[in-house]
Design brief:
471 residues, 3 domains, three-stranded antiparallel sheet, 72% helix
């Protein structure tokens, strides 16, 4: 019960109430509630802003790591996997530019081992001793021709593959710390191709015997010998010293072996880390994002841009490697560099193709007006084609289907031809593949012809209106 006069304060439950104080308390509670709400709104806004920035950072990192992971994985497999390495370098044994360069290098080493000029000078009259140099040069040209012929054989290709496989397996055992048999010469860890040099010497074995005036029988090398042991056998057969670096390609200083082993271990761990981290990072980025389609587009487009930059960088490196060195070996360097980097460019094309496919799929399935209209057109077209297919054996069942046919028949014919041309341009097809494409195109065109005959002959929209009713 409340009571009181106009000038006296109201009484509630027998107690007077101060309206001003009550109003002030109510206002304070309202202000406190609004302040709490405002603070919560600001915290939510800050959290959302932080989340957007964090997702953007993750998207950028993922876009960088995707092409980087593909590149590192290719490099790891090509350089450190013996089978992949041998598959990469094996075709070089049949490249004319490479075999010509190898023939020149092998000739220089073989000629240094034979050293026929003193023998030629001793065989000439004293007054004709000056001819020893030109004759020796002629002999060198003959040796190079014989070396070129020896290198352009299947036997050399097999020996090249075997030598590279054995050398790479032994080198990887050393780098992985599984072997202490370090192949060194003059303080350098080397790749031994002494069996290849021995093969070249065997190709001129008879001529060398005639030049040196005694029978020469070169040893049979298996490729498992240490370079110093193999060179010692060749020196013993020739009965003359050969260079200590014969048939060897220096890789790195022997005192850097610990660093090389550490680099290989780090490279292995980096490859595994990237293969695990990159997909997890992509999944986490999409899971945290509120706008997953936009984030997927950002990651895909970013990865495409990074892959393009990597391709351009590799092209620059490729050109630099080809242009650096002796001019006479440029064609060989060109063949070797292109063969070694071919795998990277193949991987990069796959990354670009998958990235473009993801971008296209994300766009055409999106809520964009043009995408919605395109999907509607494809759906309507598919329904019309289905109706037409069902009506090939009889007549078209409704006028809308026949109308669509009359309006799009030529476009369908053109699309079939364009698709066939694209397949021929993109795919490397054999004669059988070409025949299959031609047969499929002919069947498709005949199917369109049957559809055209199943549609009404009268064109749609000729301008003739419905017949007028008699008054």
């Amino acid at each position: 019960m409340t009571s009181g006069s106009i000038d006296s304060p109201p009484i509630v439950n027998g107690r007077p109430v101060d309206l001003a104080a009550e109003l002030e308390r109510t206002r304070a509670e309202r202000d406190a509630a609004l302040a709490r709400l405002d603070n919560r709104t600001r915290r939510v806004a800050r959290g959302a802003r932080f989340r957007r920035w964090f997702v953007g950072l993750l998207a950028l990192l993922t876009a960088i790591l995707i092409p980087l992971t593909a590149t590192v994985t290719w490099a790891h497999r090509t350089v450190l996997n013996t089978s992949a390495y041998v598959d990469t370098v094996a075709p070089l044994a049949k490249d004319p530019a490479v075999t010509a360069a190898l023939a020149r290098i092998a000739t220089d080493q073989a000629f240094a081992a034979l050293d026929p000029q003193p023998t030629i000078a001793a065989a000439l009259p004293p007054k004709a001793a000056f001819l020893a140099g030109p004759i020796a040069n002629g002999v060198k040209g003959f040796v190079q021709d014989q070396a070129t012929n020896a290198l352009n054989t299947q036997q050399f290709a097999n020996l090249w593959t075997t030598a590279n496989r054995i050398a790479h397996e032994e080198l990887m055992k050393v780098l992985d710390g599984k072997s202490q048999a370090v192949v060194t010469t003059n303080g350098q860890v080397v790749l031994s191709v002494v069996p290849l040099l021995n093969q070249v010497l065997k190709s001129v074995q008879q001529q060398a015997s005639e030049l040196l005036g005694r029978n020469i029988t070169l040893p049979q090398l298996s490729g498992t010998e240490l370079p110093s042991q193999a060179c010692a056998k060749i020196s013993q057969a020739l009965n003359r010293p050969v260079p200590s670096t014969c048939g060897q390609i220096p890789l790195f200083p022997a005192n850097k072996l610990d660093q090389a082993q550490w680099a290989v271990r780090a490279f292995n761990r980096l490859t595994v880390l990237l293969l695990v981290l990159t997909p997890l990072l992509l999944i986490g980025t999409l899971w945290l994002s509120h706008t997953r389609r936009r984030t997927l587009l950002q990651v895909s487009i970013g990865a495409l841009l990074v892959m393009v930059v990597l391709r351009r960088s590799m092209m620059w490196l490729q050109k630099t490697l080809i242009d650096t060195g002796k001019p006479e070996n440029k064609d060989a360097r060109n063949a070797i560099v292109h063969q070694l980097l071919h795998g990277f460019f193949t991987v990069s094309v796959w990354v670009l193709g998958i990235g473009l496919a993801v971008v296209a799929l994300a766009l055409v399935t999106g809520p964009y007006r043009w995408a919605v209209a395109s999907r509607r057109w494809v759906r309507d077209s598919a329904v019309s084609v289905w109706r037409l297919t069902r009506g090939v054996a009889g007549r078209a069942r409704d006028e809308s289907t026949a109308s669509w046919l009359r309006e799009h028949l030529d476009l369908m014919r053109i699309a079939g031809g364009v698709l066939a041309v694209l397949l021929l341009l993109v795919l490397s097809v054999s004669w059988i593949g070409l025949l299959v494409i031609v047969v499929l195109l002919a069947a498709y065109e005949y199917w369109l012809y049957r559809l055209g005959r199943a549609a009404p002959n009268e064109p749609v929209g000729t301008g003739a209106g419905p017949p007028a009713h008699a008054g």
